[in-house]
Amino acid sequence: MRPFLIKDFKIMLRDRSELVALLLMPFIIMGILGTALSGVMEGDTSSIDIQLAVVEEDAQQEGIAAFQEQVRNSGVPPEAEEELAAAAEHMNPARLLNNMLEDPELSEMIHVQTMEQSDAQAAVRAGDVDAVLTFPEHFTEDTLNAMLMNNGNGSELELLVSDEGSINTTIMEDLLAGFTDNLNAESAIAAAGAGGEEAASIEIGGTETLSQNEPVSAMQYYSIGMAVMFVLYVAGTIASKAFVEKQQQVYNRIILSGTKTWKYLAGKIISTAVIAFVQLTILFILSALVFRTFELTSFSFWIGMLGISAVLAVCVGCIGGLLTSLSIRTESDTASGVFTGVIVTLFAFAGGSFFPLDGMPAFISAFGSWTPNGAAMNAYIRWVQGFGWSELAWPIMQISLVSIAAAIISFLVFPRRRSVSS
């Protein structure tokens, strides 16, 4: 195996164009994407400016009073009556939404103006505002009745937008959807409390972030994304060079020297894996040195990074073995060409190398999680965020399963005869 490894390393070092493609190009793209998209991924909202007109057709206090009067006339027990009256004050939906819009962070993005309906309609048509949010008549009363008494169908907020499908519209729609989901959850608990099924006093507020550290930065994200993408090219490169060896009779001379065919294939797998591991290590260290992406002094952190890299490198080696088998059997470099020209790009897209997949359809995310780069990216990001080894078990298992499948297929496909034909 050692002679094969040394041979492949020498061939790679002599090919400067391949070195540029495997090391310099991903490093340059890391810097470009990490710098250009840092504001977007790290929460820079300075470029978001939403002009929102709010139309109040609802009388909030009158709605609360009307609801409380209905409660008194409903014949509920006195304790439940007090609970429902207090819940109506606490869960006034219009006030809660207005308070949310006045939040300091949101107010930097969303600038609220109170208008009459006719003025708001004219403003949105003229493009002076991005959206009009209307609290319809009896909104408070109808909503409280539906939430706390399970009476009626409630009410609906009305959102009129100037440009359906724009980023500002999407932000407003997502914001209102999140608000209504939280309000529905709170109302269910409040109603249960009033009915004596839960504790009477329950306070819900804020959000819980399920991560141990801050989200990864754009530079960290694209350092990982480009590394796991470009490491796949190693498999195609080694396979294409195996085809050249076949064309130049190098492969035949190796086989005629008494080397078993499986040893040649195993040598290609090992060579590809080692080269892939070296590439990943160089890229991550360069990123840490130049871009300050990762902490250089944390020994335990780098043990984890190298461990994930080793698992991914073995997978790339097995894929390289599969492509080599196809190239030798078909005596064509079509397989490696399709892999590097089409499949790597497809894997990079589905695996999240170009951008996070949060807003993509579920089937794309599911497919991407089974690509070697996608599973490795999940593992790297979790490790960078501070999660333990237990959180890495599944993505590492996914990579390992792909490795096993590729290795088995490569040995099944590889020709067993010692062909000396060109």
Automatic annotation (TrEMBL):
InterPro entries: ABC-2_transporter_component, ABC2_TM. GO terms for molecular function: ABC-type transporter activity. Its main location: membrane. It is found in: Cell membrane. GO terms for cellular component: plasma membrane. The chain crosses the membrane at residues 20-41, 221-244, 265-289, 301-323, 335-355, 392-414. This is ABC-2 type transport system permease protein. It comes from Sinobaca qinghaiensis.
